[in-house]
Design a protein that fits this description.
two-stranded antiparallel ribbon, flat, 3 helices, alpha+beta, about 130 residues
């Protein structure tokens, strides 16, 4: 089963880190990444750019573009991981490892379905 681990943090806090602080955090997170890759559990992962450079498309027809940030929350979605585990509990354990490296972040774990063009849709039970 694929799970998304969504990493939330206060953007202003992250932007306040020095290059050295950011590099140290990324080094710790990459240690977790390397282990998850070695265990064949890690799929795509990304660190998202600042919400100030984001736009949102919403509305009917062609829609309307509005400037970001697009969420009315204190924390913003700053990145995500896609992991492959048989149970939610195992995915939560992986998120706990990421949180050990970045304890001030919030991690949301959510099952996802993978949609590939031309492939039949699988139910969540099929994983």
């Amino acid at each position: 089963m694929l799970y998304a681990i969504l990493a939330y943090h206060e953007e202003k806090v992250v932007e306040s880190w020095t290059k050295e602080e950011d590099a140290a955090l990324m080094s710790e997170l990459l240690q977790v990444n390397d282990r998850l890759v070695e265990e064949k559990h890690l799929g795509p992962a990304a660190r998202l750019g600042p919400t100030a450079r984001a736009v949102t498309l919403r509305g009917t027809g062609a829609g309307m573009i509005t400037d970001g940030p697009f969420a009315e929350t204190k924390e913003q979605l700053l990145g995500f991981y896609v992991v492959d585990y048989p149970t939610l509990e195992a995915a939560v354990a992986a998120a706990r490892d990421l949180r050990l490296a970045n304890p001030s972040a919030v991690y949301e774990i959510r099952p996802i379905s993978l949609y590939l063009p031309g492939a039949p849709l699988a139910s969540e039970d099929e994983g």
